[in-house]
Amino acid sequence: MTTLVWFRRDLRLADNPALAAALKIGGPIVPVFIFAPEEAGAWSPGGASRWWLHHSLSRLDRDLHRVGSRLILRSGSDSLTELLRLRAECGASHILWNRRYEPASIARDRHIKAELQAAGVETQSFNGSLLHEPWTVKTKSGGPFQVFTPFWRHCTSLADPEAPAAAPTHIEGPALWPASRPLHEWQLLPRLNWTRGLQAAWTPGSTAALLLLRRFLDDSLDDYQNIRDRPDLPGTSRLSPHLHFGEIGPREIWHETRRFSLAKGRHTTWRQSHFLTELGWREFAYHLLYHFPNTPEQPLRENYAAFPWKPDAVHLNAWQRGVTGYPLVDAGMRQLWQTGWMHNRVRMIAASFLVKDLLQPWTDGAHWFWDTLVDADLASNTLGWQWVAGCGADAAPYFRIFNPTTQATRFDPQGTYIREWIPELAGMPGDWIHQPWTAPPQVLSAAGVRLGASYPRPVVDHAAARAQALAALALLKRVEHP
User: Fold this and answer.
1) Is the pTM of this model over 0.90?
2) What is the CATH number of the domain that holds 81?
3) Is residue 41 left, alpha or beta, with left meaning phi > 0 and alpha meaning psi from -120 to 50?
4) Are residues 116 and 253 in the same domain?
5) Most CB atoms closer than 10 Å: which of 15, 103, 151, 457?
6) Over the stretch 379-422, which tens digit does the pLDDT of each residue have?
7) 236 CB contacts (<8 Å, ≥6 apart)?
8) Residue 355 shares a structural domain with residue 476
9) Is 385 a catalytic residue?
């Protein structure tokens, strides 16, 4: 009696409910990953995600070999065809997997489960990526939440999620293994190697994820509330790409944080920690995506579909390349391009600049992040962009427009983050680095900065752009409430 375990966004052995269920059934287990990006529709993996996936699959296969197993790789435009083919090759009686919650994945999985069951295959799916299933968390009226605070208050009032299962020490394999595709054939790595910055910044895999979590708990959790918004300080966990690919699960983060906090004597307050609240935002993002599946492309607040965007290829390109003339925005966009990641506070500032200073459609920003982020996650990406644009659930008020200069002064006070990612401004003194266009000529000359040459002048005047955005947003409000 052989069981197929279909790995997807759960590339780990510990805290893997589908794998644990297969071990409980007993008998040979065949782990399989099917690469079928066409099934994701418009949201197939971007370049940075493909790089991470390549290395994560390689490490998962290595982990499986350590316990006597291996990862079978298959590809095609149809996962069902590959599963049926594998079932015939292995004589599998069961096919198990952990659930995904993107709209295209839900539709695909429902179809696959129905077809497999009709073919006589025992199937079962599990929750391997969330603390709570989206359909189990409801308002008092029985509907979905659309405001974060009551959503997370409700979640933290529930019982703790189940403790994660340890990784198995041995997995029985079949007498004859089915054929597997070589990983390099998928060409997940780019032909032109632009990934050196990613390689320097990241180590994919579940081992690295757990080490990163424990190091964060030891070094940064106690001060997280105070430094989490500072891009110039190493105050965040950087677990988001590991979470996205399922190299670590939220249950493991929850229980590791619980153990650490209880050891510190925080018996009553640990559930309200700012760190776990960030995990709550991820839960909220999936809650919204499940209940409002059109939001990756359409605003949740339908009236925003009429917003008077001003698409401009020159402005969009300047933002993408990090040459807007606003140092904190440019530093973030360059960090993104070089490392596949951007500090969350800077993400909000850069996103606000695109949609409110430049009046570019929020979907253009969402698609750029999707291609360049190693943690490109459809739920979190959608929530973040709609929050900034003011068109989603729990959105920022329409009049909230981040001032990139004052934000830089507040959260990168010495200009350390700016100097790291914009070397042409490294010589600027702290009094002028956040707005070099206001610096006296002698200051610019001493720093080796030539505005318009070595570093651009601002592409827009923030005060004028803010007034224009407020006028457009106010008009939209009048249309909404005539």
Assistant:
1) yes
2) 3.40.50.620
3) left
4) no
5) 15
6) 999 999 999 999 998 766 667 899 999 999 999 999 999 999 99
7) 216, 220, 224, 228, 343, 344
8) yes
9) yes
Distance in angstroms (rounded) separating the CA atoms of residues 336 and 320: 9
* Pair (317, 283) in one structural domain: no
Residue 309 falls in the annotated catalytic set: yes
Measured CA to CA, the distance from residue 87 to residue 74 in angstroms comes to 13
Helix (H, G, I), strand (E, B) or coil at 32: strand
Q: Are 331 and 470 members of one domain?
A: yes
Which of 407, 341, 330 minimizes the C-alpha distance to 380?
341
Catalytic, out of 177, 186, 281, 437: 281
Catalytic: 152? no
Pairing of strands 2-7, 29-35: parallel
Does residue 471 carry a pLDDT above 60? Answer: yes
Q: Are residues 108 and 160 in the same domain?
A: no
Residue 174 lies in a domain: no
Catalytic residue among 122, 344, 403, 437: 344
The verdict on whether 52 is a catalytic residue reads no
**Residues 340 and 427 occupy one common structural domain:** yes
Q: At 7, phi and psi to the nearest 5?
A: -75, 145
- Per-residue model confidence (pLDDT) at position 396: 61
Inter-residue contact 456 to 318 (CB < 8 Å): yes
Catalytic hit among 385, 387, 421, 432: 385
Whether 220 is covered by a domain: the verdict is: yes
Output DSSP code: residue 451.
Answer: B
How large is the average pLDDT for residues 252-265?
Answer: 92
Separation of first and last alpha carbons in the chain: 66
